[in-house]
Amino acid sequence: MDTIQALVIAILQGATELFPVSSLGHAVVLPALLHWGIDQRSPEFLPFLVMLHLGTATALLAYFWQDWWAIITGVLGMGDAHQVKESRRVFVLVVIATIPAVIIGFFLEKFVRGLFGSPVVAAAFLIVNGGLLLFGERLRGRGAHRHLSTLTRTDALVIGCWQCTALIPGISRSGATIVGGLLRGINHEGAAHFSFLIATPIILGATVLEVPKLMHEHVPAGVLATSGLAAVVAGITALLSTAFLMRYFRQHDAWALNPFAYYCVLAGSISLGLLFLL
After folding, report:
1. Mean of the per-residue pLDDT values of the chain
2. What pLDDT shows up at residue 144?
3. How many angstroms separate the CA atoms of 140 and 247, rounded?
4. N or C of the chain: less Cβ packing under 10 Å?
5. Phi and psi at residue 146, in whole multiples of 5°?
6. Which domain holds residue 197?
7. pLDDT tens across 87-132, in order?
8. Could you give the number of structural domains in the chain?
């Protein structure tokens, strides 16, 4: 993998991790379409993957630092009684929403990605992801536009279960969790806000799990330098993507997921055609 390829993948990761279009699906399909021949299971790809995740997680922490600071200080009992109670409530909701993906991911991630991780299948699931986004828009609670502050533990658990579908390449983690929020009556902005909050421990957890493997690998200095540059690019892209999306979802609550749905259906269909022709 050369520097140009690394930067393209970093930009792709930083954008598609937050946009509801599946970062994993794009990471599987695009190299196949471009004939890059990148082996994502090779030891040299591991530090690159870890650094990309670290860059994305850092961007989310930077954008939502006030939320995380309130959660941390509240858990530690700092602040007035109302702040502490509310911060601890949000912390519990984040934990509840994270648990399903942690459990399912621990036991089934390798199996699911091995089963569904081919470029053709990932392209097909991009189309499925588009259908999922349209499904969420059509079946969201009519007249129910709850604010994030009304989120319950049941809501968090349902959203967390939706998050598990993103183990399949082509299904977007942010898209699935936003749809889960919409179906519980939460508005787009609130659903996206909670989706991005619970993304942080998931991405950081995935990064931490890979670190022990990384310590046992001999990584050339050039790979580390490229990975570090890619992490910065992915982080900047993710920060800009988050800022754009939060404003976008706030301003287009009636149909916000539709453009992403149409994109996924179109991109998946074109990719399928090209993969069968090439």
Report:
1. 87
2. 55
3. 20
4. C
5. -70, 150
6. 3-34+43-277
7. 999 999 999 999 998 888 878 777 776 666 689 999 999 999 999 9
8. 1
Phi-psi region of 151 (alpha: psi -120 to 50; beta: other; left: phi over 0): beta
Q: What six digits make up the tokens of 220?
A: 């050339």
Token pair for 78:
């700092």
Instruction: Report CA-CA distances (Å) from 9 to 3, 37, 128.
Output: 10, 13, 23
CB < 8 Å & 24+ apart, contacts of 120-124: 120/272, 120/275, 120/276, 121/169, 121/170, 122/22, 122/24, 122/25, 122/28, 122/29, 122/169, 122/170, 123/25, 123/29, 123/170, 123/268, 123/271, 123/272, 123/275, 124/170, 124/268, 124/272
Under a CB-based contact definition with an 8 Å cutoff, are residues 191 and 144 in contact? no
pLDDT band at 141 (very low <50, low <70, confident <90, very high): low
In this predicted model, what pLDDT tens digit does every residue of 167-223 receive, in sequence order? 888 999 999 999 999 999 999 999 999 999 999 998 888 777 776 666 666 666 677
42 or 77, greater pLDDT = 77
The SS3 assignment for 146 reads strand
How many CB atoms are located within 10 Å of the residue 267 CB? 21
**pTM recorded for the entire structure:** 0.90
User: Residue 245: what residue type?
Assistant: L
Q: If 0-12 CB within 10 Å is exposed, 13-18 middle and 19+ buried, where does residue 48 land? A: buried
- C-beta separation of 73 from 79 below 8 A: yes
Structural contact between residues 194 and 67, judged by C-beta atoms closer than 8 angstroms: no
Alpha-carbon span 278 to 275, nearest angstrom: 5
Give the pLDDT confidence score for residue 191 in this predicted structure. Answer: 93
